[in-house]
Amino acid sequence: MVALDGGVVETTPDQPIERRLERIHRALAELLAWHEPKAMAIEEVYFGKNVRSAMAVGQASGVAMLAAAERGIGCFGYTPQAIKMAVCGSGGAGKKQVQRMVGTLLGLPEPPTPDHAADALAVAICHGNGSGHRKAVDVAREATGALRGERIAG
Does any domain span residue 53? Predict the structure, then answer.
């Protein structure tokens, strides 16, 4: 695997939420048009102690999925533990460990910064490591459904 791009879409907290979400949507739509990915992988929202923060992340995830849907791109969600397990071999890995491992796995000269960019690359690594298995399962499901004359929802 190689990193083709990476970064963070920044917004300012003084803007209304609808403007911040619009900025995120527009930036992602441009990136999707530029890179033409076949799939989008997203970290599933984790509801910890800060519900307000989790809601904001959920809203941002929603506009990311909308940008993908507008281009016919499928979305795949992964738990934080699954991502850490795929990258570090432990679901309890810390942020710095994830950053270092992402840098190592992608052959980067140093760990990616900020940590949000490293997190996004970690989600991509998680998806990439499991996509072959998922594709095989999907093909098997379609074949089974075709044999029975029905479509299986996955």
Answer: yes
